[in-house]
Design goal:
The chain is mainly beta. The chain has 1 helix and 5 strands. The protein has a single domain, classed as Roll (SH3 type barrels), CATH 2.30.30. The longest helix is centred in the last third of the chain and has 7 residues.
């Protein structure tokens, strides 16, 4: 899966705040994601993130 900085990920599971969209701040072996609802930043392993992605919204599409 090709995920780059600036993409928005729609996740299968919701963040505790209720939002399910995450902005990619950094990609590599780990992803640094920011919740678009509350602004909380999290680090998550790439393997776990790729399993939980429902849709990728590219920065150029929005």
């Amino acid at each position: 899966m090709d995920i780059i900085k600036g993409d928005t990920l729609v996740m299968k599971k919701k963040h505790p705040c209720g939002g399910n969209k995450m902005l990619v701040l950094r990609s590599g072996m780990d992803f640094k994601l920011r919740c678009t609802e509350c602004g909380r930043e999290i680090m998550i392993p790439r393997s776990k993130a790729e399993k939980n992605v429902r849709q990728v919204i590219r920065a150029a599409e929005t």
